[in-house]
Design a protein that fits this description.
The chain is of the alpha+beta class and 720 residues long. Helices cover 24% and strands 25% of the residues. The protein binds dioxothiomolybdenum(VI) ion. Dioxothiomolybdenum(VI) ion (MOS) binds next to loops.
């Protein structure tokens, strides 16, 4: 049909110049007019109890103050039931902000100072006096009630207890067993852009400029909270400075901004502080996993038992797919998985890049390395030995599966064959001990309902739009490529718009599903628009649709949608990968340096290899941070996050990152979605930490099962 091949080209970001010149507007940067007021939050300083007394008189009298909202004067809100598909926990209920005197977690918002300037609001917030009636807060797994989740199914996959065969019986007779407990601390998303909302009311209609991964869900949530029609809410979010999952749900500060704007009758801007970001927008929950692998001496797995305990809040039961990949990654007749939640006086955790799989893969892929050591088998060989051609848990064929190819391509690029398996036996050119580790990776392929509009104009250009967001992968660019190729127009003649609920409905930019979902909708819309144009012009085909449009001289519009579900029940759909890491370890300081990472991925069709490579590098960097640095510390006495600034919360900087090499396997999967893209964002973080931990073992002979791998753990000295 079309003669261009725009898909697959390594185009630079179309919006790149706007970002580097400051032309891209982020949520807090919109001009909401001269009446703009500023909200500053007052947070609870206890983890459990009630507000006995809250005194805002001094704050209200301070310069520039318009109002101070507390539970005593805040209007009662409708809070109609609403759960964003896949993003809100099925069990429990979101916090109702400023509606009563209950405190459920440290940092809970208990008042908002609204003033004419940010400085006045900040000062006023400091003048609010609070007395609490405090109760004991549950802040540890030991004190918590650790229970199976009430719902075994989330709205998109299964969590909780599941089994095939009889793992416990098989483990008693397995010739070789390895067992370990793996601990991943709480981690925060910490995108550079702080979460922010500007809210403005005009009569009973609300406009929000918001940092979000899902504009449509913000609209629906605000409609539910305020009890107004969804048509009365417009959400605008053209640029997002990173989110990693923190922008999937609609958090209480969004409600607070809208509530404040309505209360003072002026637009209100609310920007969270970095510290508020630690408890206000979710986090990766702390997990404790126990895994037992049983195998024959030839490496064949005979049984796996995988248990996970994960923190959640008292008011919502957040669950994630920590144990799921254990069910299908390798061939094994007996598998038992268990998932437990530990409800504590904390804010609700949420999805953070590759939620579930990134945690589960650390346990499973380190355990596989331990098994390889136990039976003296090469760890790549062990994984190949346990490869399978179908999903043994769901008894379905994979729509495509490139684990073997990824392991082969990755080991070749890494030159894995030169590895001496003996720990501590390899050194770099400077004589430092080095270690090589590997891990297999996988992530589910999700496709969600999505739609897009294609408008062909008489001047030969096209405007394509969808209400999705772009949190960083380059959605503006990749969608323009899909549209240009499908329409048969030069890329310069096509504009893609997003981030506005006035555009056709779109799902969250999450679960690595946006390209498969919205990309497929864009393709459908553009194919239909092209078909209409050619039919009107009485032509069968055309090299340049622009010529056709100029001849027609009238605009054409088409909507395209995708409603997945067709082949999903017949195939198990996942992306696969393999990660190889080289570390050097300083024997005196215990510092681990990740000298080299090779990631090989089978993730379906790659729309733009430059963006994809960039996406993968970002995912691997995040995995390096998880392996060596990231840790949100909770003071168990108070349930309070310690620090909560980017000075305390370490993430990799340029000096921490060295050689990263990325391989994409050519993969043509006709079953997953019309565009053939499996998604990359999450997959590229999965198993990075395991490959590094395995490399640290290979370098030092020390098996570190608790992240992050700090110098203290490497040297085996108590952490200060
Ligand atoms: Mo991703 S955790 O679905 O933003």
């Amino acid at each position: 049909m079309t003669h261009t091949t725009v898909i697959g080209q390594p185009l630079s970001r179309i919006d790149g110049w706007r970002k580097v010149t400051g032309g891209a507007q982020y949520a807090a940067e919109f001009n909401a007019g001269p009446e703009l007021a500023y909200g500053v939050i007052v947070s609870a300083t206890i983890g459990n109890g009630r507000i006995a007394e809250i005194d805002s008189t001094e704050a209200e009298a301070a310069a520039g103050v318009l109002a101070v909202l507390t539970h005593r004067n805040a209007p009662r809100l409708a809070y109609r039931p609403h759960k964003g598909f896949g993003v809100d926990p099925l069990e429990g209920e979101r916090l109702h902000i400023l509606q009563d005197d209950h405190i459920h977690h440290q940092g809970q918002y208990i008042a908002l100072a609204i003033a004419d300037t940010f400085e006045h609001a900040t000062h006023a917030a400091s003048l609010v006096r609070v007395d609490y009636s405090e109760e004991t807060a549950v802040t540890t797994f030991v004190a918590a009630n650790v229970v199976p989740p009430d719902t075994a199914y989330r709205d998109w996959d299964r969590v909780g207890d599941d089994r095939r065969g009889d793992a416990d019986a098989a483990l008693t007779t397995a010739p070789v067993c390895v067992t370990g407990e793996y601990i991943i601390p709480r981690e925060n998303h910490h995108p550079i852009e702080l979460h922010a909302t500007i809210a403005a009311w005009e009569h009973d209609t609300l406009t929000l400029w918001d940092k979000t991964q899902w504009p449509d869900n913000v609209r629906d949530e605000m409609a539910a909270v305020f009890g107004i029609p969804a048509a009365n809410v417009r959400v605008i979010s053209p640029f997002v400075g990173g989110a990693f999952g923190s922008g999937l749900r609609v958090w209480p500060h969004v409600t607070l901004a809208a509530l404040a704007a309505r209360y003072v009758g002026r637009p209100v801007k609310l920007v969270l502080t970095r510290r508020q970001m630690t408890t206000g927008v979710g986090y990766r929950p702390r997990t404790v996993q126990r895994i037992i692998l049983g195998a024959r001496h030839d490496g064949g797995l005979v049984a796996i038992r995988h248990e996970c305990e994960a923190e959640t809040s008292m008011y919502e039961q957040y669950t994630e797919s920590v144990v799921n990949m254990t069910q299908y990654l390798y061939s094994c007749p007996n598998v038992a998985t268990h998932y437990r939640t530990a409800a504590m006086n904390v804010s609700t955790p949420s999805f953070m890049r590759a939620p579930g799989e990134v945690s589960g893969s650390f346990a499973l892929e380190c355990a596989m390395d331990e098994l390889a050591v136990a039976i003296s088998m090469d760890p790549v060989e062990l994984r190949l030995r346990n490869d399978t051609d179908h999903d043994e848990h769901r008894k379905l064929p994979f729509s495509s599966r490139a684990l073997r190819e990824c392991l082969m391509a990755g080991s070749e690029r890494f030159e894995w064959g030169r590895r001496n398996p003996r720990p501590g036996s390899m050194h770099d050119v400077k004589g430092r001990v080095k270690g090589w580790g590997c891990a297999g990776a996988t992530y589910p392929v999700y496709t969600f309902p999505a739609s897009a509009r294609a408008q062909l104009l008489g001047d030969g250009s096209a405007l394509v739009s969808s209400a999705c967001s772009d949190i960083g992968p380059g959605t503006y660019t990749s969608m323009t490529q899909v549209a240009a190729e499908t329409l048969g127009l030069p890329i310069e003649q096509v504009r893609f718009e997003l981030g506005d609920t006035r555009f056709p409905p779109a799902p969250a930019e999450g679960a690595s599903a946006l390209m498969g979902s919205v990309g497929s909708a864009v393709r459908a819309a553009c194919a239909e628009a092209r078909r209409i144009a050619l039919a009107r012009a009485g032509e069968k085909d055309s090299d340049d649709l622009g010529d056709v449009m100029r001849r027609l001289g009238e605009p054409i519009e088409a909507i395209g949608s995708i409603n997945p579900g067709g082949e999903a029940p017949r195939y198990s759909m996942h992306s696969f990968g393999a990660v190889f890491a080289e570390v050097t370890v300083d024997p005196y300081t215990g510092m681990v340096r990740v000298a080299r990472v090779v990631g090989a991925y089978g993730a379906g069709r790659v729309i733009n290899p430059k963006l994809a490579r960039s996406q993968a590098i970002g995912g691997i960097v995040m995995g390096i941070g998880m392996a060596l640095m990231e840790h949100t510390a909770l003071d168990e006495r108070y349930g309070r996050v310690v620090g909560g600034t980017l000075a305390d919360y370490l993430v990799p900087v340029h000096a921490d990152i060295h050689d990263i090499d990325v391989i994409f396997l050519h993969e043509n999967d006709p079953h997953i979605n019309p565009i053939g893209a499996k998604g990359l964002a999450e997959l590229t973080t999965v198993s990075v930490a395991a490959s590094i931990a395995n490399a640290v073992y290979h370098a030092t002979g020390r098996r570190i099962r608790a992240l992050p791998i700090t110098p203290e753990k490497v040297l085996d000295v108590p952490e200060s």
